[in-house]
Amino acid sequence: MLRWATEWTKAALLEVQEYVRLCRASINAMVTRPFYYRDLVQQFDSIGLGSLTVVILTGLFTGAVLALQSGITLDQFGARPFVGRLVSASMIKELGPVLTALMLAGRVGSGIAAELGSMVVTDQVNALRALGTDPMRKLVAPRVLAGTLMCPVLTVISDVVGIIGGWVIAVFQLRVASSLYWSSVTESLYPADPWMGLIKPFFLGFVIVSVGCHVGLRTRGGTQGVGRATTNAVVTASVGVLVVDFFITRLLITLMY
Amino acid sequence: MEPQLYDEFGTALSRQEILDATGAPVVMFDRVDLAFDEKVILRNVSFTLLKGHTKIFLGASGAGKSTILKLILGLWKPDAGVIWVNGERVDQMNERQIMHVRADLGMVFQEGALFDSLTVRENVGYKLYEEMNWPPDKVNERVEEVLGFIGLADFIDRMPSELSGGQRRRVAIARAMAAKPRILLYDEPTTGLDPITSITVDEEIVKLRDLEGVSSIVVTHQLRDAFFVACHEARLVDGHVRIEPASEQKSEEAEFIMLKDGGIIFEGPAGDLRRSTDPYLQTFLS
Hints:
The complex is a heterodimer. By secondary structure, chain A is mostly helical. Chain A has 8 helices and no strands. Chain A has one domain. In chain B, the strands form 3 sheets. A 6-stranded mixed sheet of chain B has the order 6-7-8-3-11-12, with helices on both faces. A 4-stranded antiparallel sheet of chain B has the order 2-1-4-5, with helices on one face. A two-stranded antiparallel sheet of chain B has the order 9-10.
């Protein structure tokens, strides 16, 4: 039992060490030459445009269901016209960033882990190194940079679409006046709220993609290993998103409110 | 400290002068050890590959053959011992420092390891356009030249998934030779191929060695292919490449190294290997 615990601790520490090394190497690769611009553009397209549909759908239905649910609760206090406040505050501060990040963890994190994992088990990563390419620069840095920058953009889109979804329900289902909805959307927000909703996705995007790259590059054991890596990447990135979200929120509240 | 060599007049030779000389040592292993936890992979391995010569590593699966190639490329580091490649100590270099050593090395991986998302043209020209910044016209010219050399010019715009196993292996050879490295490493280049396709791949190895002057290290457990590479030579006759049985001198330039449990148990030319009375070697060869 003690031996098992020791081995587990050693393995866990090794993973943390390797993850930190990957983060450091990818940041270093972002600020020093050579850069692989084509890969960067490709990743912006794959992570950003590729995730647009899922993010729009998630945002739209989250905003809609939020309006629907909060409408019932607010009715108990005769406060149905304030539904816009609830939708906007929830979407911008928390649900937009977190749900977008979770969707990205499922779509992008798993995709990266599977792609890099396949490259590892078929020796393509070693082939890259043999051809004089640093995988950190060619594979990791473009993905991490694109993920970190595209996550906030997708979050803003999700927020906007979510608020529109809330408006549809508020106007056509809850019979709240459209002008009342839109004015209440902005009324409840503190000046710092949009900033919080915008700052958090940078960290969440970084976590999702760096975890996907780390898990993918440490894939062992053939196609079965690739499957395991994909599952691990989604689980780790999703948990990571929630944990990092909590700590960043705590920090931002201390600094901004 | 680097070894210092002198010419007949006592003048110290530069690294490049040493490497340009006939029979220069291009790869040198000196008492190399490697183990993963309790498992010993290589034990006290020493050998020297001379310029234009071939070393053929034989041994059972897990004997440490492929590990030697990964150590030469600097993909792994030894626990002890010294590894020289083209006059540079690669065992002490980090990933960044070793990049320029890899510029003169080509590696053909076991299953080819072609990049799935790139065409044959992009795979073969990868190093030229991505790492050496050649202009596109020049890259295309070189890619067409090497694909013509290995007889796959018609497949230039295919994806790797559209190629047969043998074609993938030959494209991998084309990719490895595109940047004209002076050393080529082959990791089980014919494993899983039918005998006729294997001979095609073997002939490419012989052609590259004899016509392009490439020093080669071939890791295999296919005896037939190993002896083919060791006992044949390529000649250019009237503008046509001919593969013929090697002269005695040429045969001597290809040496076999037999690994067992991470150690070298035989090193010598094909004739000596065939004549060996060692029971393990006899079992392996039978």
